[in-house]
Amino acid sequence: MTDVRDELRMKVGILALQGDFEAHARVLERLGVEWAYVKRPNELAAVDALIIPGGETTTMLKFLESNGFLEALRRLPVEGKPLFGTCAGAILLAKEVTKPPQASLGLVDVTIERNAYGRQVSSAVRRGRSTLTGAPLEMVFIRAPIIRRVGAEARVVAECDALPVAVEQGLCLLATFHPELTSDTALHEHFLQLARARPAAPAGRR
To answer: Is 178 designated active site?
Structure first.
């Protein structure tokens, strides 16, 4: 586990509308990264990257669409701010969503099928691997979606049972499982590395 506080000099936002956003905060604490909960669009200006936790995507979308939040999120990568979506957050980042179709940010060229792992009781802890390092990864799937298609410009960064479960494109990373619910911080660390490509924050912004 790497402490990245001094190297990155960043603040990571966690969208605190639904899901286990507190678990993501605990991971960032362990990594020595400054973080803040984000509940309003205007709070995005104060963070350098954003995590979108799991939750119920239909409910989340209604809230995001009602106050201009959705468009503000869509602009973040253009502004050099990485996005990391887990489970429902992954669905929001996907270009195409099926069963049923729904709106999304369309930032990662994948097709995702919702709730493909079934009911809550069908959820499971599985062992996958990073396709970047080959290292094993513990993965918690809770009513998880399945990635059915990965576009040419997207890159698979983790697999489980020969299926892609984490994909990145540009400054966006999505995972169909819940890395925040395990002791393995590798995927969060990989997300933080994306922040190295962001433009330097103006002096005195904070």
So the answer is: yes
Reply yes or no on whether 24 is catalytic.
Answer: no
- The pairing of strands 124-130 and 172-175 is unpaired
Give pLDDT tens digits for 127-178: 999 999 999 999 999 889 999 999 999 999 999 999 999 999 999 999 999 9
Q: Can you list the domains of the chain with their CATH numbers?
A: 5-197 (3.40.50.880)
- The catalytic residue among 113, 160, 172, 180 is 180
Q: Could you confirm whether 172 is annotated as catalytic?
A: no
